[in-house]
Amino acid sequence: MFRLAKNASLKASIQSSARATASRLFATQATGAFEEQAYKKIEDRLGVHQQKFGKKLTLAEKVVYGHMEDPTQAVTRGETYLKLRPDRVAMQDATAQMAVLQFMSSGLPKVAVPSTIHCDHLIQAKVGAKEDLNTAVDTNKEVYDFLSTAAAKYGMGFWKAGSGIIHQIVLENYAFPGGLMIGTDSHTPNAGGLGMVAVGVGGADAVDVMAGIPWELKAPKVIGVKLTGSLQSWASPKDIILKVAGILTVKGGTGAIVEYFGPGVDNISCTGMATICNMGAEIGATTSMFPFNNRMADYLRATERPEIANLADTYRDILRADEGAQYDQLIEINLDELEPHINGPFTPDRAHPLSQFKAAIEENNWPGELSVGLIGSCTNSSYEDMARAASLAKQAADAGVKAKAKFTITPGSEQVRATIERDGFIETFNQIGGVVLANACGPCIGQWDRTDVKKGERNSIITSFNRNFTARNDGNTETHAFVASPELVTAMAIAGDLRFNPATDTIKTEDGREIKLENPLGNELPPTGFDKGENTYQAPPEDGSSVNVIIDENSQRLQKLSPFAAWDGKDIEEVPVLIKAQGKCTTDHISMAGPWLKFRGHLDNISNNLLIGATNAETGEVNKVKNIVTGEFGAVPEVARQYKAQGLGWVVVGDENYGEGSSREHAALEPRHLGGRAVIVKSFARIHETNLKKQGILPLTFANPADYDKVSGHHKVSIKGVSDIAPGKPVTLVVHKDDTTEEITLNHTMNEGQIEWFKAGSALNLMAQQQ
Questions:
Q1: Which residues contact 616 (CB under 8 A, 6 or more apart)?
Q2: Roughly how many angstroms between the first and final C-alpha of the chain, as a whole number?
Q3: 269, 662, 663, 683: which one is catalytic?
């Protein structure tokens, strides 16, 4: 099946790959040469691996094992730690700040793999595209200048504000079938729509790869989703992942790659596949992906990458699963029978078929009147998405109907924006009262200066976004956010009511007529090709060594990093529990986004949002904990700073799937900066657990989840066994209760290398020691 490599040349190729990539392609478009090298290495590594083990492989395994530093390594899914060589790194501007600051600390002159920075997170939606972009460019000038000059100095591509959302830019320019990339955003798996293994990580992981160090990943399990049939009527690709989220829940994909296959795959567009992979982050999956097919080839050619389409066709055998490959779990979905879904509120896995949604609204007393409908975001902002939504808007406009709810549209990229403007979609949206926002993340990540409702006012919104945690979009805990396809969002915005079912209900026009919306239609690719729009890309110079990267010492937005202290070699003795968090505690609860995004490059300032969204299990209150030294109550970061000033470490106790959501490493950096020693929970989300390890915090889990109830936020605790911590060896939590103590067994998943991170104080400290 695979052409076998000569072992000597393969070994030399693998050993030199990290530095050799420094001069590889960094331009906005691929030529195919870089990808051809990648395919040859994948095929060679798989040949060596298969010669030794002879196992039938899933597609996910082929791509992952094809990037192993040592292809002779035996692999057990869910157990073996792999050292991988990703093809590229992508970073959005909010997380790039800390990642670049960390890379600068490494002392290296240039990144070792193709890397890009994308300015999409710092643009706040308020008025409209032009005004909001101009405001962002002015407000964020200090940060944009820092990222632009750092990119030039260290050999990174830089996409300016207004270019679009990172994941759409990657899909349009960089993603290729069979590639492996990491990105400092949890929705990096979007590139799985082009057959990549694309994984969201924290900035410290990105720094490792940019420094030429292999990236470590526990070999994922593989969940297979077999698709048959084709989508009907109002059903869309978004409904596939909404259905899967309802099946697997927000943690059902943890530690696994979700691999879609079956005859139904060929009936989904490439950008539709990207939508499905993008929202796979909401089930905790490492990533999601599809096998290479003609729909991907069509997209590659439409985005001027025919050479890659031809190469992928040549290497098709390594871009699909072997016949008879085994999955750890199998889900089957008949697309002929799939109904449109709406998920929410407050969690993306609460799934409702459209036909049952009205009843759910009434049974739960959720606000039925729709305040705002929002389409776009990295999940659903392709040409096809906009075309199908515009077909509904045109029907309403032709009937003289305007949207009864506020209606916003966020194009995914400058290329999509320019193309839908040329093809008349923006004018159509305007005709029904729609407002086109900047090519950016905007309301999806809380960058929304919303003025139509007051904080604390109950209301409902529906979006085509991916995530709908409490207060995420607008900072209002009483906003009931629902997630659906752009088509359903548009239809409901026109109707102004969540109880409206466009498949069965009618809309009344101004003159009293009843009209029924016809099924949405739209081309998956523009018939006359894409319009690239304004050029917003800055390529790095051949030699950036003379570029000066300036950080003002008095800046409130950027701060150079100081190394964390190394471990003192002792057990953790009698430290307070800063907070016992109850229920869902996402990275939004640990380190809020929205207005706090402006401090992502200043660790001390952003640490003032530490756990301010978490619910205190002792009191049921948010951002109010007891300082057990003084007996007084204060905000979580305030009490943490008080403990730190007294030389006291502290721990956090949490519930299930702690740290789900965004990849933001600030949720690990902040507790480390303010003196945190360990986080003890029932279970972790994958990215957050890794981020804690990278920053030198012990991520520990209760061996018996019921022991969570034995710990109080008013206790002091000790952790015994840290002094001789070893892989697979539990440690003991000693809970100090007045005159008695209670011992609780805690587990960890750290391997030898990760324990060395802990001992050094952080992974970055260890890297510096090894230079």
A1: 579, 580, 581, 582, 622, 624, 625, 713
A2: 41
A3: 662
With tokens 């900035």, the residue in question is: 203
The DSSP letter of residue 616 is B
Instruction: Determine contact, residues 83/214, Cβ cutoff 8 Å.
Output: yes
In the residue annotation, 121 being an active-site residue is answered as: yes
Catalytic residue among 120, 423, 588, 707: 120
User: Annotated catalytic residue: which of 295, 352, 417, 467?
Assistant: 467
Estimate to the nearest angstrom the gap between the alpha carbon of 187 and the chain centroid: 3
Q: Would you say residue 594 has pLDDT above 90?
A: no
Residues 716-725 have a mean pLDDT of 97
Residue 545 catalytic? no
Q: Would you call 87 a catalytic residue per the annotation? A: no
pLDDT of residue 739: 85
Report the relative pairing of strands 256-261 and 287-289 from DSSP bridges. parallel
Say which residues have a Cβ less than 8 Å from residue 645's Cβ, sequence separation at least 6: none
Q: Give pLDDT, residue 593.
A: 85
**Residue 664 annotated in active site:** yes
Whether the Cβ atoms of residue 152 and residue 160 lie closer than 8 Å to each other: no
**Residues 767/757, Cβ–Cβ less than 8 Å:** no
Given the residues 45, 49, 121, 305, select the one marked as catalytic: 121
The mean pLDDT of 700-708, rounded to a whole number, is 98
- How crowded is residue 456: how many other Cβ atoms within 10 Å of its Cβ? 9
Consecutive H or E run containing 643: helix 636-645
The secondary structure of 366-406 as a DSSP string is ---BEEEEEEETTTB-SHHHHHHHHHHHHHHHHTT---SSE
Rounded mean pLDDT, 339-366: 97
- 551, 409 contact by CB (below 8 A): no
Strand pairing report for 180-183 and 157-159: unpaired
* 106 band by pLDDT with thresholds 50, 70 and 90: confident
Q: DSSP letters of 461-476?
A: EEESSS--BTTTTTS-
- Out of 87, 185, 497, 588, the active site residue is 185
Provide the token pair at 291. Answer: 């096998």
Q: What residues contact 564, with CB distance under 8 A and at least 6 apart?
A: 672, 673, 695, 696, 761, 762, 765
Angle at 35 between CA 32 and CA 41, to 5 degrees: 145
Q: What angle do CA 284, 654, 245 make, to 5 degrees?
A: 20
Long-range contacts of 751-757 (CB under 8 A, 24+ apart): 751/81, 751/727, 752/727, 753/81, 753/216, 754/216, 754/693, 755/725, 755/726, 755/727, 757/693, 757/694, 757/696
568-to-470, 676, 758, 769 alpha-carbon distances in Å: 39, 14, 10, 17
- Token output for 446: 């809380």
Q: Are 335 and 59 in contact (CB under 8 A)?
A: no
Residue 4 has pLDDT above 90, yes or no: no
